[in-house]
Backbone:
């Protein structure tokens, strides 16, 4: 059945509608997870709040195993989905810059907008800095162009590179994530005396 | 610790391990879906005419690839120029498929009529090959149109006569027969009637 647009089940005109709905849902989940607070976000670097790790790891493992099952049931053809191209060294540098920005500013690009949505001043300052950074990068792009496009591996997955079936990666990531959940929970208990456990 | 966390942890672990046991059968991954195949089967666009093929052979079109799906003994008796023999029963073997799916090549199946060629086409289409065609009418139509073309009636249009001329010339090309200088159009002596010059102004202004 899926992906819907490449399989001509719906037209490409729906792209913007779907993007808007996904964006709203994403922003809502970020806010609901407490990602509009830079204290929560930066906490993962200082070791007192691991909500970022839990939310993102949960999203990763649920989506990862979910997609494998969807593919098996024939609901989504995994060979037709878009895979982001990999540029090894530029991505490593980008991740370092992103991490530094994250720990300094207390937001990542997406969460800064959820912060603005609930009226956080620091989020607004962060978003202005973000726009400024994009502008400077855009203007100085010719200087980085060669590096920016270096180390291209094309649209590859881990399975393509290593030859190990996707299921093994799903299991490995799930085990790592679940271990991290329990490990960080015990750390949080020790560090934060007045911790309230989420009830569901 | 909340019991729900333990339950979710175990559930997630179970689901992740479960992915190891789901295997999609990749053998027929490139196969056309049944509904797409049905749509393709109902299209007459897979048929090429004997005239088109004759023209391509005469022009030595390098993109044409003729595949004879009749049994080998029939192929040895007669076949079209440069055709390869892939009997219908061998179409699924690796040797049978090595002529298909070549980039920029148009594979045309033919048999005595178009039934076996159609069968070969359906099998190949299902396997996901593109640029495959069927010679409409097969070798029977080939003989009827190219080798022994029938002269169109005198009332036929000019294009029909042109087609007949082409077929006759093509027939000569393929059979190596001698050129017959009969253009096919019945020559009738043209009688020229001249108007007699009017001696006096007769009417008009």
Residues:
């Amino acid at each position: 059945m899926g992906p819907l647009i490449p399989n001509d089940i719906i037209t490409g005109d729906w792209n913007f509608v779907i993007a808007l709905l996904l964006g709203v849902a994403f922003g809502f989940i970020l806010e609901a997870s407490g990602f509009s607070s830079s204290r929560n976000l930066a906490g993962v670097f200082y070791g007192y709040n691991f909500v970022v790790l839990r939310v993102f790891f949960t999203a990763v493992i649920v989506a990862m195993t979910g997609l494998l099952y969807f593919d098996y049931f024939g609901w989504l053809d995994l060979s037709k989905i878009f895979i982001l191209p990999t540029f090894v060294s530029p991505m490593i540098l980008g991740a370092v810059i992103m991490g530094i920005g994250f720990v300094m500013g207390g937001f990542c690009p997406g969460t800064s907008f959820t912060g603005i949505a609930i009226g956080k001043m620091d989020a607004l300052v962060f978003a202005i800095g973000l726009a400024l950074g994009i502008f400077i990068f855009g203007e100085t792009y010719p200087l980085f162009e060669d590096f920016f496009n270096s180390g291209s591996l094309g649209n590859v997955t881990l399975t393509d590179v290593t030859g190990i079936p996707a299921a093994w990666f799903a299991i490995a990531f799930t085990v790592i994530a679940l271990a991290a959940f329990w490990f960080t929970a015990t750390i949080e208990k020790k560090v934060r005396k007045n911790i309230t456990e989420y009830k569901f | 610790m909340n019991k729900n966390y333990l339950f979710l942890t175990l559930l997630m672990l179970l689901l992740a391990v479960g992915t190891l046991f789901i295997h999609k059968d990749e053998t027929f991954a490139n196969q056309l879906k049944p509904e797409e195949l049905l749509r393709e089967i109902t299209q007459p666009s897979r048929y090429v005419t004997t005239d088109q093929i004759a023209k391509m052979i005469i022009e030595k079109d390098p993109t044409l690839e003729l595949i004879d799906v009749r049994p080998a003994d029939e192929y040895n008796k007669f076949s079209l120029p440069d055709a390869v023999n892939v009997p219908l029963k061998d179409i699924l073997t690796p040797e049978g498929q090595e002529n298909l799916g070549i980039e920029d090549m148009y594979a045309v199946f033919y048999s005595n009529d178009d039934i076996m060629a159609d069968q070969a086409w359906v099998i190949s289409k299902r396997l996901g090959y593109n640029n495959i065609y069927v010679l409409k009418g097969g070798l029977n139509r080939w003989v009827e149109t190219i080798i022994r073309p029938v002269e169109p009636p005198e009332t036929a249009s000019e294009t029909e006569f042109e087609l007949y001329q082409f077929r006759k010339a093509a027939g000569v090309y393929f059979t190596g027969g001698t050129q017959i200088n009969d253009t096919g159009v019945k020559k009738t002596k043209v009688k020229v009637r001249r108007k007699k010059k009017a001696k006096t102004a007769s009417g008009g202004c």
Q: What stands out?
A: The interface with chain A takes residues 1-2, 4-5, 9, 12-13, 15-20, 22, 24, 29 of chain B (CB under 8 Å).
